[in-house]
Amino acid sequence: MNFDMFMAGRISFGAGVSATVGEKAKALGASKVMLVTDETMVSIGTAERITSHLEEAGLPVEVFSQVEPEPSVETVDLAADRLKATGCDLVVGLGGGSSMDVAKAVSVLATNEGSAGAYQGLGLVESPGIPKITIPTTAGTGSEVTFTAVLIRKSDGVKGGINSDYLYPDCSLLDPELTLSMPKKITAETGMDALAHALEAYTSRQASPFSDMMAEAAIARIGRYLRVAALRGNDIEARGEMMLAALFGGVALANAGVTACHSMAYPLGALYGVGHGLSNALLLPYVVRFNAMAAPEKFARAAELLGGPNYSEGLFDRAVECADRLDELVHDLDLPTSLRELEVGIAPENFEDMAKRAMAVARPMENNPRDVSLEQVISIYEEAF
Question: Is the pLDDT of residue 331 over 90?
Fold first, then answer.
């Protein structure tokens, strides 16, 4: 067995830890900071809170708050132009995965020529970027500890990631207090995103003992605490445990990769604007049923970690129960269970094009525990419809 282990830079966890952003930025040599965030963080005052901590440390701040839910190459290019024009030498990404992904991409465009679209792929970034700090306000994407920034190209509607070790954040501040304001819907969708990361990394062909350890820790926490966090949003213990789950899922993802569910989710976001977490939440039970027989020990163990009794004695039956646990979780969180429920214009005649786009997201398909064909992807979409 051969494997490598990769980790992001410094990670600080705990209630109130976001208040240390100024001292962390100064330790990284910052003289002027760009805060990359979205309008929600501005409207609820979280952006101002982080800005004040930076300014108290003597650091002027340029705020870029134009990040959209499914961020685009064009937004990254706009933010990078602003960074260069204002002379910022450190980037702070504040928000969900979208804001953190944009911040990570901006940091490398500061030192690499051209558009962000030129770097979508694996290992295409030539030079290290400027320092970057990530501060998640959701518990889902794990972007605070991954080497990926996922972006949509408006020119052709293709969704793809910039994947480079240069995108690992230098410092991540995980403050559960910042997640207390998350609505139930966002809590549910981002939590299911974290679960998809952990479960897919756990059953990936690239899984290792290290990634398995992280994935199991994430799955168990999500099974225990996601419902609580969604239904009792001010429960700081549940919020903290979900933030840890997202962290562990992100580390597992960065080391083992994800599988077919993520590939199949990309067209939903690129073509129909469906949020990434919601796309994964909807498709995951269907993909797990397809994959269960190819990695029965892993899926059976995941079913146990998600909680509830095992109804079956046979290994393959217990593996399929993992999909049953996911169905129960999605139902309890009041999330859609079919593509039809999304009401975004998806129709069966779209499935072939969606499947071709999914198959083009090659690395997750290659990691999938079961070989998957174009026809099988179409079939899964049909089942999910």
Answer: yes
Could you give the CA distance from residue 38 to residue 69 in angstroms, rounded to a whole number? Answer: 9
Query: CB–CB of 64/47 below 8 Å?
Result: no
* Residue 224: φ, ψ to 5°: -85, -35
C-alpha 335 chain-centroid distance: 18
- Structure tokens given for 117: 């679209």
* Phi and psi angles of residue 88, each rounded to the nearest 5 degrees, phi first: -70, 140
* Predicted local confidence at residue 132, as pLDDT: 97
As a whole number of angstroms, the distance between CA 277 and CA 182 comes to 14
Q: Are 177 and 15 in contact (CB under 8 A)?
A: yes
Tokens 């949509």 -> residue: 152
Nearest to 219 by CA among 237, 250, 198: 198
* pLDDT for the residue 70: 85
CB proximity list for 49: less than 8 A, separation 6 or greater: 18
Q: What is the pLDDT of residue 310?
A: 66
| pLDDT of amino acid 156 | 79
**pTM of the predicted structure, to 2 decimals:** 0.91
The Cβ of residue 45 has, within 10 Å, a number of other Cβ atoms equal to 11
CA distance 67 to 364: 26
Please write the tens of the pLDDT for every residue from 194-250. Answer: 999 999 999 999 999 999 999 999 999 999 999 999 999 999 999 999 999 999 999
For the chain, how big is the Rg over CA atoms in Å?
20
Rounded Cα–Cα distance for residues 371 and 279 (Å): 21
Residue 237, strand partner residues: none
Structure confidence by residue, pLDDT tens digits, 150-168: 998 888 777 888 999 999 9
Which residues in 167-177 are b (16+ Cβ under 10 Å) and which e?
bbbbbbbbbbb
Q: Which of 147, 215, 162, 192 is nearest to 6 (CA)?
A: 147
